[in-house]
Amino acid sequence: MCSLPAAAVLRDGAVGATRWAFAALACQLARDGHCTLVRTRQRRWWGPTGVATVDLHADPTVLSSFEQTVLRQLGRHDTLNGFGFAGSTFRRRTLRDVRADLVEKGELVDRSRRSTACVLLGGVLLVTSGVGLGMSGPVAWGGTGLGAGLGMLGIATVRYPCTEAGARIRAAHRASAEQTRNEIEDRLSTSPARAAALLVGTLPALVLERIATPRWLHAVADAVEGAEGGRLDWIQDEGEPGASLADDLRTLAAILKALGAGPWWVNLW
């Protein structure tokens, strides 16, 4: 199975939806013991506000340079909310290196130059067709030009498509995550503890594939309420310390929202 950064780039093309990718990475780094994700409150002029922060542990040498870079960047933000919504430049720049590796491996194709040419040609066609229609030119010609221009702009959006090999890897990662989700949901009614253990072990991949969304985590938390199972010891809630795995999952849902892994209009709480 490919790494999380590689799966993120293959999934979304180029750099894609980076907030989800880095939310998954933050979960993986925390689960592996390199940091702790904390739900807390900060006092603002309008009153206490819910935020999420990160406590960094000693920077271990076992981390890859990519993971060390992400961990350092997490520590530079006062809150995970800031990293989730204001760290887009860093996230996109960091994933470009992953994209370059995938191009070299033959899992992505670099069509950025063709994409730029399509943008220019599409823009010219749209402008000239619009001018022609405005001057009462032939409607058929103008419509054809507009259609061709829009088509060129559509082609231009595909700058780094997957090769056949890359598409297979991407499909396998998605299929594995979906199978895991189905197993978790099947076990919730008969063996919630086993379902919870499976969730904890595969959480980063489920976050990356938009399966472990805040809403889904709340549903799973309700299902495992009162069940015995492992805790998420890399998650803390300073406001209302949790007493069960269900509490941990609800805290994690709030932290994912802070990282931007959810609808933008939903607040942390």
Account of the protein in words:
The chain is mainly alpha-helical and 269 residues long. It has 2 domains: 198 residues; 45 residues. The relative contact order is 0.16.
Tally of separate helices:
11
The class by helix and strand makeup works out as mainly alpha
Total E-strand runs: 3
Major beta sheet, specifics? 3 strands, mixed
What topology does this entry show?
Blueprint: H1 4-12, H2 18-31, E1 35-44, E2 47-56, H3 65-76, H4 80-86, H5 88-105, H6 112-134, H7 139-156, H8 164-187, H9 192-208, H10 214-223, E3 235-237, H11 245-258
Parallel strand pairs: 1-3
Antiparallel strand pairs: 1-2
Summarize the structure.
The chain is mainly alpha-helical. Helices cover 62% and strands 9% of the residues.
Tag the structure with descriptive keywords.
269 residues; 62% helix; globular; disordered C terminus
